[in-house]
Specification:
By secondary structure, the chain is an alpha+beta fold. It has 16 helices and 14 strands. The protein has a two-stranded antiparallel ribbon. Strands 3-6 form a two-stranded antiparallel ribbon. Strands 4-5 form a two-stranded antiparallel sheet. α3 packs antiparallel against α5, α10 crosses α11 and α14 packs across α16.
């Protein structure tokens, strides 16, 4: 297991995969020097804080899909995907770890494996019923169980013993809570299929609406809440009482559960005929697939009403549209720039090293011509020169791999530069979001009758 983990980490390097820096061998122990992940395990985060909101779970799950896709493209399978092996860098970034059960498919993607490994709650049915299995569908099944755990907070198949858990997985019955949105239900149902060949690929999962449109789940919930709640009729006059009532605040999911009160959905991994209906995986559109609110008149405009307060009376007056604030052409003599995500990446205050990929991340390029190097490796070489490690020393230590202290120092500097780049971008984005908006006073006049 230890040798397979080292071999896998030597070959896979991805922004969402744990980084290996160095391997130190002594007479009695082998030490793996990896990067430090401050957020801890995803399992502890969910068990202590509850399930994730779908709009939060979708980008995290997408990062997992990208990491697993990178492994599969290189011919590796993880075989132990679970919440305990997912580490959180921050609230919106994670890394996949623990590659002790991983293996390389030397005979192609359809190579049959016969080693039972992994965690039983995440194990696919073929691990219990067949003598051989294919690695990629096993990882896909584990990703479906992990997605269920992320949005629900518990496991779909539960039993007090391993034989009972095996029987539950082979039987295939599980419940999907009614408060989940339709895109999330579709993706989970599409993944948890008993037959491995019918499970989706990683690209199919990346193209699902749950991943590509993370805000669609909230929009569908809000749309159904609007359909089931009647509009509040407000009178023309309102008298303010001395007592103030405290209104309880609900999250969108809690409000959705209270209004719809949907029962759990009985699902089975063997009975998924509805998954293969032609229009089942078609994109969901609110205006086309869902009924329109009959209480809403399309002819009415959405112009907000303005109100005038006088003592304890509140009287409605005619609508008044706000004047659009004109953008100032210059601020302090400098041209004002509208910042967005694309503009922030090109900001000269930092370098975008986080998206750099290539073999030089793990091993330096075997050349002395610095002009042929990527900007990230070029800066790392300059720092190593200042520390007394020249290009000739780097090239001579390439064959030793992670067991070389020089290669370990090279990897640590690469990782530090990438982290500094990511932190710099985050600081700039936060600073741009917190910039005080210039308020323009608009003169208004009204007539009191």
């Amino acid at each position: 297991m230890l040798s397979s983990e080292i071999a896998t980490l030597e070959c896979v390097h991805h922004p969402n995969i744990l980084r290996l820096f160095e391997v130190v061998e002594t007479l009695g122990r082998v030490y793996l020097v990896t990067e430090w992940i401050r957020g801890g395990e995803l399992y502890n985060h969910i068990t202590q804080g509850g399930p994730l909101r779908e709009i939060h779970a979708a980008p995290l799950f997408k990062q997992l899909l990208m990491a697993v896709k990178h492994m599969h493209n290189l011919g590796f399978v993880h075989r132990d995907i679970k919440a305990e092996n997912v580490l959180l860098l921050s609230e919106d970034r994670l890394k996949l770890a623990d590659f002790g059960f991983s293996t390389q498919l030397l005979q192609g993607a359809n190579q049959k494996l016969d080693t039972f490994c992994g965690s039983p709650p995440y194990a696919a049915p073929e691990l219990f019923s067949d003598d051989h299995y294919i690695g990629a569908p096993v990882d896909v099944w584990a990703l479906g169980i992990l997605l269920y755990f992320m949005v629900v907070g518990n496991m779909p198949f539960r039993a007090p013993t391993i034989p009972g858990l095996k029987a539950a997985i082979l039987k295939g019955d599980y419940l999907l809570p009614g408060q989940l949105s339709l895109p999330c239900i579709r993706l989970i149902q599409r993944i948890l299929i008993h037959i491995p060949a019918r499970r989706p690929t990683i690209d199919d999962m990346l193209n699902s609406q749950f991943i590509t449109q993370p805000k669609l789940s909230a929009e569908l919930m809000q749309h159904e809440i609007n359909l089931r709640t009647k509009p509040v009729k407000r009178s023309g006059f309102w008298v303010r009482s001395k007592s103030r009532r405290m209104r309880k605040t609900y999250s969108l999911r809690e409000r959705y559960m209270e209004v719809t009160n949907k029962p759990p959905i009985n699902m089975n991994t063997k009975k998924n005929d509805g998954v293969f209906v032609d229009n089942y995986l078609q994109p969901i559109e609110i205006n086309r697939d869902l009924p329109i609110d009959p209480n809403k008149d399309a002819s009415k405009t959405n112009t907000p009403k303005r109100s005038f307060f006088c003592s304890t009376l509140k009287k409605k007056v005619s609508p008044m549209e706000m004047e659009k604030e004109k953008q100032l052409a210059h601020i302090n003599g400098c041209e004002k720039r509208q910042w967005n995500a694309e503009a922030a990446i090109d900001c000269p205050l930092f370098k975008n090293y986080d998206v750099e990929t290539g073999k030089f991340i793990m091993l330096p390029t075997d050349t002395e011509d610095l002009s042929q190097l990527k900007p990230l490796e070029f800066e790392a070489r300059i720092i190593l020169e200042e520390l007394g490690v020249n290009s000739e020393m780097l090239r001579s230590s390439i064959q030793n791999g992670p067991r070389s202290d020089i290669i370990g120092a090279y990897r640590i500097i690469i990782n530090r530069l990438q982290k500094q780049s990511w932190l710099a971008r985050k600081h700039v984005e936060l600073a741009l979001q917190e910039m005080p908006k210039i308020e323009r006073k608009v003169e208004r006049s009204c007539c009191i009758l």
